[in-house]
Amino acid sequence: MGETVRPPPKNGNESVKGDGASLPIRCKATLRRAGTGRGSLDAAGSPLDTDVPWPGATTAVLDERPREGVASVAKQVEILDRVVIRFAGDSGDGMQLTGDRFTSVTAAFGNDLSTLPNFPAEIRAPAGTLPGVSSFQLHFADHDVLTPGDAPDVLVAMNPAALKANLDDVPRGGTVLVDTADFGPRNLRRVGYDSDPLADGTLDGYRVHAVDLTGMTLRTLERHELSRKEASRAKNMFALGLLSWMYHRPVDATVRFIETKFAKNPVLRDANLAAFRAGWNYGETTEDFAVSYEVAPAPMAPGTYRNITGNMALAYGLVAASRQAGLPLFLGSYPITPASDILHELSKHKRFGVRTFQAEDEIAGIGAALGAAFGGALGVTTTSGPGLALKSETIGLAVALELPLVICDIQRGGPSTGLPTKTEQSDLLQAMYGRNGEAPVPVVAPRSPADCFDAALEACRIALAYRTPVVLLSDGSLANGSEPWQVPDVATLPDLRPEFATAPNHPRADGGADFWPYLRDPETLARAWALPGTPGLEHRIGGLEKSDGSGAISYDPDNHDRMTRLRQAKVDAVAASVPRWTSTTPAVPPACWSSAGARPTGRPPPRCARCAAAGRGRARTPAPPQPVPARHRPRAAPVRARAGAGDEPRAAGAAAAGAVPRRRRGIQPRPRAAVYLHRARRRHH
Amino acid sequence: MTEAGNGQTAARPYPALAGVPSTEVPQTKKDFATDQEVRWCPGCGDYAILATVQGFMPELKLRRENMVVVSGIGCAARFPYYLNTYGMHSIHGRAPAIATGLAASRPDLAVWVVTGDGDALSIGETTSSMRCGATST
Prior knowledge:
The structure holds 2 protein chains of 2 kinds. By secondary structure, chain A is an alpha/beta fold. Helices cover about 30% and strands about 15% of the residues of chain A. Chain A folds into 2 domains: about 25-295, 3-Layer(aba) Sandwich (Pyruvate-ferredoxin Oxidoreductase, domain 3); about 300-600 and about 635-685, Thiamin diphosphate (ThDP)-binding fold, Pyr/PP domains (Rossmann fold, 3-Layer(aba) Sandwich). Chain B has one domain (about 15-30, about 40-130). In chain B, about 30% of the residues lie in helices and about 10% in strands. Chain B has helices at about 45-60, 95-105, 115-120, 125-130, and strands at about 65-70, 85-90, 110-115. Chain B has a 3-stranded parallel β-sheet, covered by helices on one side. Chain B is globular, with a radius of gyration of 15 Å.
């Protein structure tokens, strides 16, 4: 590299001298509709016949590009209804950042989208190897999309390992953009290629763009004061620029992002900006890329939207729930992939009354959360599958104590340590049954990253209203994936304020009154919740079985039978309460979601009115509601009788004993463990 | 030690009790006894400990409703049931963790942990709780 020349100070529209072409370039777009395109554009007076959107920015185009060539390239524009792009490279190549930026501008542009980051567990796996490949998949569309997509239409592979690891997922006919810089014999052998896949026919049937992204980035940055290694790191920005051109993404936001991110380091800032612009200009000028693509914005309800990951939405949901409940949020947690982001995010919200406690292990994390819940905080713990296993004993204690507690399990592949950074939804049975004794808990599962906000609110609502631990079952894909989220109006959020006991609730024979911690609300079966600090309501709770009502230790078998059924009936009551709550996510009308999944009746879900009107879904006569078998029926009525029985506990107890049939001899039917899946139900159109 | 009374907090030699409201209403040992039958073996030292604790708690002049006793498992862990304060009888070795969460979120509470040797030092989290400086006693 010769003498380095610092670029002149950039003021306003001044362009770098001697850098070849200057923009904006007038570009005649020809329009061709793709077969699957839903969008239609009138060719006459098309908005595509316009200036290239590069408003007055300084430009750094490769010196090698002849100016004449620029103007002569007539680019086609295809209209697509949806695209799946996967960025893949070495961990350290900045693929997550690249994907993140592309996602942000796509969200701002107004497409609906869904993302899937996929990265190795090693902080830095050996460079150029298959285990070191990190990728980011983005599905964006002009309509509502529900998944990050199975097969990428476009693969951006920054090295041979990324190509090898991801090519099988790309269907023939797909576009493959390869950085050829690392395709030397040594690197190819390292990932198991005997010959160059760019030349040996491996890529036959794909639309291949083999481009020396690294080399061009280095040449772009020749005049910047950077080492070769530092300069090559900007290749992700070159690729981002190229893709931004290819898919007509707005560039302003990315420019602003780079300027902010590297505000303290002008050399890096200018280098990344130059690489980004060079990538964009390369797409615009080279004949290799004859077609660019447009995906129109998706129709969405008016409102303020932001792109959000599942973990971020879940953290916000917890904060919102704590505000709506009027309780301080206490998070007792121990970091674990992929749940740690929630701890990180919540630790920033002290001004909302959030306290985060990073404990010495998962067990202490949930213990602290449960202790805080006893004191009247909204107790939350976050973890993944292995942590849920460690927390199971304390969850059982929370079931016995009947205190509100939210356990967020961000699932990952198992068993054991399993696949820490990979997603799997395999903890359902652990969430439902992973405790000793009969300890049913409600389980809430979000259906998308943005829905994590609603699911968190819902989990907190259930925990607070029913005084029960609730498992919130997210997963790595939702946690790290993102989609547009309509920021809800706070006024529309549910009121979650719980009722606390303030006075003794059980009259004594001598005219005084006691506080009985296990007297219940007749509707929710929630027990009375008295906070320490309330005079006259001193009471003791614990893991030993308690007498229904008084809360005294009880080894009475009939009482244990009653308490076992009550704990189950409480969870059943939660399931029955579901239809009253509506989502703040407007993407899918709640009417389309059947509530049949909440109770396994064996019947197909009923069709919603809209589907029925449109003739969609199963054509059938709705089955009449079936009575719940007597053995599963909640025994709320006797409890009510007992709770209101007044000043003669013994007599009330006897009356209750009369109302509840005594246990029959022989094997008793087990109460069914109920699981409540929060809108994770079959959609039938 | 100055007694503020009327629910105000006073300067006390124990940092753990700094934020706990005090009372001027006279308390007796009997106020701290519950109606539960004490179930320890005859001659057990726990009886003496219980009597001592019930005896000195009135001297602290703290509001009884602002005292919480947390225990883990074992004979000693029955302690909260016999003290007429708020209390939680939890699980093996976890009392310090629960007390940490409670004390961290409610500085107006005097949080006490009752534990035995195995509960505290074998399986327990006592050392970690001490290390993070939670204000439990």
